[in-house]
Amino acid sequence: MRIGVVGAGLMGHGIALVFARAGHDVAIYDESPDALATVHRRVRENLQAMGLPLDAAERIALSPTLEGAVSDAAVVIEAAFEDLGVKRAVFREIEAAAPRDAIVATNTSVMTVGDVTAEARTPGRMLGTHWWNPPHLIPLVEVVQGERTDPAAVHEMLALLEGAGKSPVHVRRDVPGFVGNRLQHALWREAFALVDEGVCDAETVDRVVKQSFGLRLAVLGPIENADLVGLDMTEAIHRYLLPHLSRETVPSKTLTQHLQRGEMGMKSGQGMRSWSQEQADGVRTALAAHLLRLAAERRG
Ligand SMILES: NC(=O)c1ccc[n+]([C@@H]2O[C@H](COP(=O)([O-])OP(=O)(O)OC[C@H]3O[C@@H](n4cnc5c(N)ncnc54)[C@H](O)[C@@H]3O)[C@@H](O)[C@H]2O)c1
Predict the structure, then answer these.
(1) Does the C-beta of 279 come closer than 6 Å to ligand 1?
(2) Coil, strand or helix: which one is 50?
């Protein structure tokens, strides 16, 4: 199958890798020639780190125009900047240049399919595919059905992803953040609130997660966990605890104060925690090694 990818950044080149490895012909476009020029090197580095043959990279064609990447594609994945105006403009271009029956997916992290495709004339073939970073190592992809999405397009996308070795799930309602990012950011909201309220410091939040329930999460989801401990106990805990959890609807006070001081996290050496270059590199290396190990285990 021919797959077009628009946006060759962190996500786009990894998505291209996944489809190329599955034997599809991929064409990728980025408005930045520099980003496009590095695709083959980045894909080969990732294949090498995974211990896989490098020839899949040859199935990825670099296109200097958007039209060239999508004009004969059966499926197009948009992975441009997380900006509604940019996404709507890219969707307009894709809609004009891709075959009329091509499925068109946005890889937005949180925006609804309805928002991204509000101006589209052919919304039935448009949906969300929310891949996780790095796309070649994290199995899950959320396939998000918009109100105007044809269910047949959803099922085709689920089958394509399954065939490419991913673990796709069907998100039936078009809600901001889908499933994964709603859960993830519910946790982050509480994490920031605990620091805001002086309950503990940022290091302690991370240590509590990593050395307790975080260890279980890969084998025990929250609903399985509730069934495991018993719904009676879950209800008793929720009756007592839920009124005390954060219901804040704006970003945390501490987070905003850090940003006002120009403290953006690892990239500026200071965020909620302080980071030397060595410490930041250590986190990235440990994360990559962990995900590579799990991906190798899954491949057997
Ligand atoms: N980084 C993550 O962890 C992550 C995870 C899941 C989903 N996403 C989503 O994936 C999308 C891409 O994110 P990313 O992390 O790869 O960003 P990125 O900044 O690494 O890459 C985006 C690329 O899109 C290109 N681009 C921007 N406008 C364009 C246009 N009009 N036409 C063609 N190319 C254009 C940029 O030049 C850039 O190379 C975003 O919607 C993001 O929210 C990101």
Answers:
(1) no
(2) coil
Q: Is the pTM of this model over 0.90?
A: yes
Hey, what are 56's tokens?
């899949």
Answer for the pair 126, 77: CB distance below 8 angstroms, yes or no. no
| Cβ contacts of 157 within 8 Å, gap of 6 or more | 75, 103, 105, 127, 129, 143, 168
Please indicate whether residue 150, judged by its CB atom, sits closer than 6 Å to ligand 1: no
User: What architecture (CATH level 2) is domain 2-171?
Assistant: 3-Layer(aba) Sandwich (3.40)
Query: Number of C-alpha atoms within 13 angstroms, CB side, residue 85?
Result: 0
Runs of H (alpha helix) within 78-198: 84-97, 113-116, 151-163, 180-196
Do the Cβ atoms of 113 and 127 come closer than 8 Å? yes
Residue nearest to atom 40 of ligand 1 (CA): 82
* Phi then psi dihedrals of residue 77, to 5 deg: -115, 125
pLDDT tens per residue across span 4-43: 999 999 999 999 999 999 999 999 999 999 999 999 999 9
Distance 34 CA to ligand 1 centre (A): 14
Residue to mutate (ligand 1; options 31, 94, 113; most atoms within 8 A of CB): 31
181-299 domain in CATH 1.10.1040.10?
A: yes
